[in-house]
Amino acid sequence: MTKVILPELGSGVNEATVSYWHFEEGDKVTEGEDLVEMTTDKATFNIPAPCSGVLSEVNFGEGDAVKVGDVIAVIEEAEG
Questions:
Q1: Distance CA 26, CA 17 (A)
Q2: The CATH number of 2-60+67-74 is which of 3.40.190.10, 2.40.50.100, 3.40.50.620, 3.90.180.10?
Q3: What are the residue ranges spanned by the domains of the chain?
Q4: What are phi and psi of 59, to 5 degrees?
Q5: pLDDT at site 43
Q6: pLDDT the model gives residue 21
Q7: Model confidence, pTM
Q8: Quick one: which of 29, 31, 37 has its CA closest to 6?
Q9: 31-37 contacts: CB < 8 A, separation 24 or more?
Q10: pLDDT in tens, 37-77
């Protein structure tokens, strides 16, 4: 199980908003693929999948605010 966490965003930026999920719970993802698009008042960026597997949990929906360090999603890693 790998947690997808909102990383540090730079000085003074403590949260971002989920703008678009590229996958849904239960979908297979490949390491490096764009998982979720996030926005701040300064930028729009994608968070890539940190590993290959199945997106087992999505903890925030589109439009939700996420704080730095929050677990956005969980990926069950592919075996072998």
A1: 22
A2: 2.40.50.100
A3: 2-60+67-74
A4: -95, -15
A5: 87
A6: 97
A7: 0.88
A8: 37
A9: 35/4, 35/73, 36/4, 36/72, 36/73
A10: 999 988 899 999 999 999 999 999 999 999 999 999 999 99
Retrieve residue 26's tokens. 């239960």
Which is nearest to 60 in space by CA: 69, 75, 52, 70?
Answer: 70
Q: State residue 80's pLDDT score.
A: 53
Q: What tokens does 55 get?
A: 């997106």
What secondary structure does DSSP assign to the chain, as a single string? -EEEEPPP-STT--EEEEEEESS-TT-EE-TTSEEEEEE-SS-EEEEE-SSSEEEEEE-S-TT-EEETT-EEEEEEEPP-
Tokens of 53: 């597997």
